[in-house]
Amino acid sequence: MFNGYYGSTSESSDSDAPIDDGSSIKTMDLNYLLLDGDTIQKHLDEMCKRSRPDGIDTMLLNHNAMLSLPPAINRFQHLRVLDISNNRLTHVPDFVARLPLTTLVAKNNLIDDDGFPKEFGCSAHLKVLNISGNRLSHFPKQLLSVTTLEYLYMGSNNLVEIPKDINKLIRLKFLCLGGNHLSDVPVTLGMLDNLKALNLSDNSLESLPPAIANLKHLKSLMLHKNRLRTLPIEIISLKCLTELSLRDNPLVVRFVSDMTHNPPSLLELSARSVKINNVQYGERDLPYNLIEYLSSAHHCVNPKCKGVFFDDRVEHIKFVDFCGKYRIPLLQYLCSSKCIVNHRNILGDSTDSNMMRKVLLG
């Protein structure tokens, strides 16, 4: 009657969240069957008649057609992993909060702000919660009481803010809030001492608080597709950071747009010749506006070049290694494209940290 699977497996979910995988996890697998809630309820009732529900650790009900969860799930009092993703659920019933779950995957449903039970905060075992791809516009307050959480996925919702009490989730290692409508990051986010990965991509962030630098164990920081024009210089103190994504931000876009170099004007070329050849001039020789123009000369950053530039210059992008793992753009102003040299020759003994400051404050 059913193509479901009931047995033992070491890989019991297609979720992108980690799952407790003991040496033998007994799994009820009813995923990808397009079953409605009533049909699944009947199957669970039949299973409970044939054997003890206490033997089930993992239940996979993802990719079905449930509008609500069958109450029979409440009979599986040893359930540790529950995957109910990719259904049409609008809420999570109260009995789910009373199960000893360590992992709950409810992504890609229709759950809104009123869809979580108030008792959810009483969970004493939950480590992994994936509620990405739902209809949340506010962070459920009861989640802030689930202090056992280590992995929290809330991407692709409609969240407009991160609660200031986010620091209550003291055990968080991974926080995904990408694909929302966030415009601000609270200072308290920097108090999540155990955080190793933070995804804030595809939001509307224009800045980050310096407190981000307090995340000393942070390894991955996803910030692409935002409105960032600068980053706090304190970020250079994140010694564990090995992955930083900044693409599709004004911070990066401004460095790579409009890179064409037009030929210098006759005024520019003439003024360069005057300065390079040390031609003497005074108020009797030139109009005041030309004297002012000559006084605005900038020296090329290449120490091997004695050239100068005025209005016209070469804007050269050097992608400089930072922490040895990823690269950031550093803008160099040169009098000619022939003056491009290694950044260490240009900046002398400056450290990568100093270069980072130049870019971030740019």
From TrEMBL:
Region (Disordered): 1-20
Signal peptide: none
Keyword NADP: no
Presence of keyword Repeat: yes
UniProt GO cellular component terms: cytoplasm
Annotated Pfam families: LRR_1, LRR_14
InterPro entries assigned to the protein according to its UniProt record, in alphabetical order: Leu-rich_rpt, Leu-rich_rpt_typical-subtyp, LRR_dom_sf, LRR_domain-containing, LRR_R13L4/SHOC2-like
Top-level taxon of the source organism: Eukaryota
Segments forming domain Disease resistance R13L4/SHOC-2-like LRR: 164-249
Sorted UniProt keywords: Leucine-rich repeat, Repeat
Biased composition regions of type Polar residues, renumbered to the chain: 1-12
Protein's recorded name: Disease resistance R13L4/SHOC-2-like LRR domain-containing protein
Organism annotation: Acyrthosiphon pisum
